[in-house]
Design a protein that fits this description.
The chain is built from four helices and six strands; from the N terminus they run E-E-E-H-H-E-H-E-H-E. It has about 120 residues and is an alpha/beta fold.
């Protein structure tokens, strides 16, 4: 999905790590720390307005370090806010299984997918 030229611009990756934002990131990911950006409806709506209003965006993939707590909570907040706007599933809200920890372990040597910090 991230390498496919036909999918360029259709996927937004939101990295919600906070003080554990280290070791690089998924190339092109937008860093939006969970505590600052998903604490209330206004903050979540600001994320949507800034990053999820393009009609070409089909999906948003949210992750934290392991995608066990912050990633799923952030994704749930996004999905709920989109639904309140009458945009349920537009874009689809997904959680990256295993988070940054799994993704970086699998692709750490791939400069097309990993961006050093």
């Amino acid at each position: 999905m991230l390498r496919d030229p036909q999918q360029q611009g259709k996927t937004v990756v939101l990295d919600v790590r906070e003080d554990d934002y280290e070791g690089g990131c998924i190339r092109g990911a937008i860093h939006k720390p969970h505590a600052e950006n998903f604490h209330d409806g206004d903050a979540v709506n600001k994320v949507i307005d800034e990053h999820l209003n393009s009609p070409s965006t089909e999906r948003v993939v949210v992750h934290c370090m392991m995608s066990q707590v912050r990633g799923p909570r952030s994704a749930k907040a996004l999905a709920s806010a989109l639904e309140k706007r009458g945009r349920a599933g537009q874009p689809a809200v997904l959680v990256l299984s295993g988070g940054w920890e799994s993704f970086s372990a699998a692709y750490r040597t791939d400069p097309d997918l990993i961006q050093p910090l």
